Amino acid sequence: MKLLRYVKVKWIKNGTFEPNPSSCVHQTVTINPVHGFTEQSTPLEILRAILTDEIVDSIVLESNRFVAQVKSSNPKAFTDWIPLTSNEFMNFWALNLLMGIVQKPCIKDYWSTNELLSTPIFGKTMSRNRLFWSKTILRYPKT
Asked: Which pLDDT tens digit goes with each residue over 48-81?
């Protein structure tokens, strides 16, 4: 697995900045086998080791419980809400991570059908409104 190395740059007052090209080169970082990961481990394997099924199920349970509590005190709230599933939560996570890789000027642009802005995987995975509502209702279990 390759990780980027962060480089500290020091600015000198009234001086000129001369970047060191070698400081921007990717370097291989050794992975500690104590954690069970190897250089062949995928980012998904690492994520799933941290975000286990048990944790995902707890988040989904608490989030759906939150919606039920809101609906009980305000019957007009979340009228069309369909309970969140574990699979949908993982899709939500994936889309949010992808937003960090594929950057757009506005969140709505991820669902744009304009040929210049289109990123079809977003619309195929989850509707824009569902992602927004999911972000609103997410609740994490108290530890």
From this structure: 888 899 999 999 999 999 999 999 999 899 888 9
Structure tokens belonging to residue 132: 């927004």
| CA dist 139 → 89, 99, 102, 126, 136 (Å) | 12, 21, 26, 19, 9
The DSSP bridge partners found for residue 2 are 28
What is the C-alpha to C-alpha distance for residues 82 and 126, in angstroms, rounded to an integer?
13
pLDDT for 15: 58
* CA–CA gap between residue 70 and residue 19 (Å, rounded): 55
Amino acid (one-letter) located at 31? I
d(CA 10, CA 13): 10
- Is this model's pTM higher than 0.85 or not? no
Tokens 């005190």, residue located: 73
* Residue 143 confidence (pLDDT) above 80: no
